[in-house]
Amino acid sequence: MARRASADLRPVNAEQIVATPLLIDGRATRRGQFGLALGRDAQGMKVLQVDGLDTLKRTFGKLPITTVDAICPRPMNAHTHLDLSTYPHLRGDFAHFIAAMAKYRREHPQARGLAAASSGLGRLVSRAVAAVGDIVARDAVMVAELQRSPLAGVAYREVVCTEQAAAVPTLAALMQRLQAWRPMQRPGGPRVGLSPQSPYLVCKDLLRQMARLSITEHVPLQIHVAESPSELAFFQTGSGSLAQALSASGFRVPPSPASLGFQCDPALTPIRYLADIGFLDAAPTLVHCVNVTDEDIQIIAEHRCPVITCTRSNANLQCGVFPWKKFEQAGVSVALATDSVASAHDIEIWHELDASLACHGPGLDLATALEWLTVGASRALGLAAMSIEVGCRLDDLTLFSRRPLVA
Ligand SMILES: [Zn+2]
C-alpha cells in the first residue's frame, strides 16, 4: 500500500511509473526528474527500475505515469511514549505539564501500562510506521514489546533516580533486567535501550554509569534534555518553575542540585553538564534540545549525538522553537518524532511533519523534513538507512503526495 501525508490514502496496485522531483533514501537526496517503475510478482508490488524519468519512459513506455511530490522509505517515529497513549492531552507550559502529569499519574496509577502501549503500537502499525523509539516505563511493557512488537527500533526503559545515594542499587537492578531482556531481542523487533529521563531526574553518578554501560555493552541511550527554559534555570540557580513543579510532584526525594549531585553555576547548561560528567561520551540520542546555546550545539556535534525534535510538543508546552538550521550547519543529525499524546495530542507522524513545515516556515523544505522522518530517524535509532533500489517492495516505500493518488 502506498502512503501519503495526510487524509487521503489509496493503494497503488497497478503496474506503473511513479514520477517524482524528490527521491530520498539512505544514500542521498536526489532532485530532478526521477521515477520508479513498479511491477507485480506473487508477493505484491515491487520496484523494477529506479532511474531518470526519460529513461523509464523509453523502457516502460506503455505504463501509465503517476506523479508524487516525493518518494522515500517508510517513516519512523524515533521518540514517543506508547504507554501514555490513553493519557489526556495536557495543555499549559512545561512546569505545568510536569505537575499535571504527576497528578494524573497519582489519580490513574494503572493508565500507563500494557493496554495503552498496545493501543499506541497499533496506531503506528496502522499508519505504516517502520520503526519506533519507545520510552517504556513498565517492565511488563518492555517484555511485551520485546516478545511481540512488529516494529523495529529501540524500546528504552525509562530510568528515574533523583538521589546520588540510590545510584549503585539502581544500576545493579538495571543490569539484572538487561541480562534478562537482551536474549528476548528478535530480528525485526526492537532492541533494548535505556532512557535516563532527563538530567534533572537522574543523578550524576547514575548518568555516568549508564554512559559507561552504553559504551561497553552497546546499549542505546535516549534522554530528554534542554527542553524548556525552566530547565536552564534549574541548572543555573536551582530554582524557577521547573524546580517548584518537581518539588511538588511526589518524588520520595525531590530532585534538587544537592540530591542529583551537581553544583549550580550561572554559566552551566544541561548540555554542558552532560558533557562535563562524561555522559555525552556514549553519543546518546538527545531529545528536544530547544533551549541551547551555540556552544551547546558545538558540544553536541563534537560528541556526534543525534538529536530528535518534537515540534508540536515544544509548541504546546511553550518551550520555544528548535533551532534546526544551527544544528544542520553544525553537521548534527536531526530526526523528527511526535513525543506522546500527552504533549502532542496524537502520535501521527504526518501531523508532526505538517506542523513542522508550518512552524519553521519556508526555510524548512519538504526534503529536509522527510529526511528527518527517515534517514535522520534511522540514525537516531541506530538502524541502517534504507536504499531505494530494484527489488524493493512498495510496502517499504512512502509515495508522498499532497494530492490523492490514483490507483
Ligand atoms: Zn518524551
How would you explain this protein's 3D organization?
The structure is a single chain. By secondary structure, the chain is α/β, with parallel strands linked by helices. The protein has helices spanning 53-59, 94-107, 114-126, 139-148, 167-181, 204-217, 229-237, 241-247, 257-260, 270-276, 294-302, 311-316, 324-329, 341-344, 349-360, 366-373, 375-380; strands at residues 16-24, 29-41, 44-52, 65-67, 70-73, 76-80, 131-136, 152-159, 190-196, 222-225, 285-288, 307-309, 334-336, 397-400. It has a 4-stranded mixed β-sheet. Residues 1-10 have low confidence and may be disordered. Bound molecules: zinc ion. Zinc ion binds at residues 79, 81, 135, 224, 287, 339-340.
Short summary:
37% of the residues lie in helices and 20% in strands. The chain is α/β, with parallel strands linked by helices and 407 residues long.
Number of helices: 17
CATH superfamily placement of the largest domain: Metal-dependent hydrolases
What kind of oligomer do you see?
single chain
CATH architecture group name of the largest domain: Alpha-Beta Barrel
The overall pLDDT average reads: 93
Span of the ends, CA to CA? 10 Å
- Which radius of gyration do the C-alpha atoms yield? 22 Å
Proportion of residues in extended strands = 15-25%
CATH fold category name of the largest domain:
TIM Barrel
